[in-house]
Amino acid sequence: MHPLLIIYHELLQRYGKQGWWPLFACVGGNPTKTGSLQGYHPGDYSYPKNERQQFEICAGAILTQNTAWVNAEQALINLRTLRAVTPKSLMTLPDQALKKAVMPAGYFNQKAKKIREFTQCYLSLQGRAPTREELLAVWGIGNETADSILLYAYKIPVFVVDAYTKRIFSNLGFVDADAEYDEVQEIFTRHVPADMKIYQEYHALIVEHAKRHYGRGLDWKQCPLYRKYRRAPEKISLRWGSAGSLRAVAW
DNA sequence: AACCAGGACGTGA
DNA sequence: TCACGTCATGGT
Prior knowledge:
- The protein is 52% helix and 6% strand.
- It has 251 residues and is mostly helical.
- It has a single domain, classed as Hypothetical protein, domain 2 (Endonuclease III, domain 1), CATH 1.10.340.
């Protein structure tokens, strides 16, 4: 078994199933915080159960860009209160109201626009799943957001790479510190079975691990992964990058 | 009171 | 391609 898969199992054993993506818990028809009691759904991969939840995940993926989840969550709750977490109602929402609702997630000018841009794309899909290229063509949707949407909203086995993934696994010696998104993604794709459940858990587990060991004031060199699995990127092989450039990568 | 959060885009070299 | 700068609120 490849170390990247061993590490996955270790994280799973340590932290347990994460139950991503966080969804609204509805108590008495009122929106409550995601992740509270019924919000997360550890071990249940049947979500999203409907288009409402599917769209909620997409909106959340945009709102949480470079932002703590609690802030994106508050923005979602505001939208939910306005009954605007649905494509049609969101498009009829005045720009001012949208920005106000999205405010706690930060970058409210940009994120209001991003959500609108995506919603337009979402409507044009008429229920079918978008391709990665279609998502990337939307203004405001980059690599990570596109892959998060594909993986969590559409259950397509695409490995999500975030800043934590790069930090942790470059520290461990599995990828270059300056590796690009696609490069990191390809390494995981190559060694981790293309199982949507595993991909969902792995990404969530990486975030959890980072929260526990990579926060400020914490020493990531003391984390259990670093002690166990750290390896020097000694074996260097030459590979062709996506742009056709030859570059050395750790193998 | 800095520093950072489950990024993405625009710009000038 | 590369290296910055910009966007913005809220928690620690």
